[in-house]
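re the bet — no i am not wrong, look at it urself. input seq straight from the record:
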Amino acid sequence: MSKDGTTATAGTAGTAFRHELYPYDGNEQFVAGAMAFIDDARAGDELVLVAVAEPKERILRRELAGTGSESAVTFLDTAALGRNPGRLIPAWQGWIAEHTAAGYPVRGISEAPWNDRSPAESSELRYHEWLLNLAFAQSPAWWLLCPYDTTTLEPGILEAAGRCHPLVLHEGAHGPNGSYLDEPFAFTDLSPSPCDPAQELPYRRGNLAAVRAKVTDCADANGLDGARLRELLIAVSEVASNSIRHGGGHGVLRTWVDGADLVCEFRDRGHLADPLAGRARPTVDQIGGRGLWLVHQLCDLVEIRSTPEAGTTIRLHVALPR
């Protein structure tokens, strides 16, 4: 029995990371579950990082006021990280590393911002939720509670959440989640490319200028210029260079507008074996491997999918001026 009076399990076999789904019914149940989780953490002298939208943060701050636990709870401003879920894992890793190195056990609460998301952003958020299990498989022991509001979220989002979380908090009991899938294939599909094949640009070594020119033409036609275009061209050059170097020496570029975004898609026959490539902050002494990290920092959304059979597809999204 845990300190909050709920039944606890040892977590997922083979890992010290506890990734738990918390379906809740409205704000009152959210507060009850989150505060019980925080109170249990504080009873064990654990620090808590909370990443929720501003309205939920305001509610929890009000509940914490005067309890003596305020100093042990840190709030992460996910809005400052932008729309790209690829920036979330390194934010959690940095906070965990800092505090566990100082000898503090940690927990977290993370509610993904599902409202007003484009289909591409929702797809990437689902993939991110599954990748958390991989990212923290070898991490120091910690517990992440992921609340999902059953009163506002679409059934498809809730169903996908069940497949991403090995554990579930249901009616006050912590236990294994029978819906969890221990493989990523349910989350790796990308929407079909709307680009006319006649608009594709095959590229190979020596063609980077043509790649940048095609992206620039598409950006100019849609009002993207200045610093944002320069940042996109850096990302485009990095991805195309990697594609040539590791994807068999050639690839295909497609560009199109998806809603409010300019999308640049790169396809090649190479296989990117690490699904977390670009999602871990490079170390000071690291040799190579910084390119995709940089791409994640420069773009508003990055989608990377790779299999030995289909090769690699990378989509870079940059918001167009309104």
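see?? The CA atoms of residues 184 and 267 lie 20 Å apart. told u. also The chain is about 35% helix and 25% strand. so pay up
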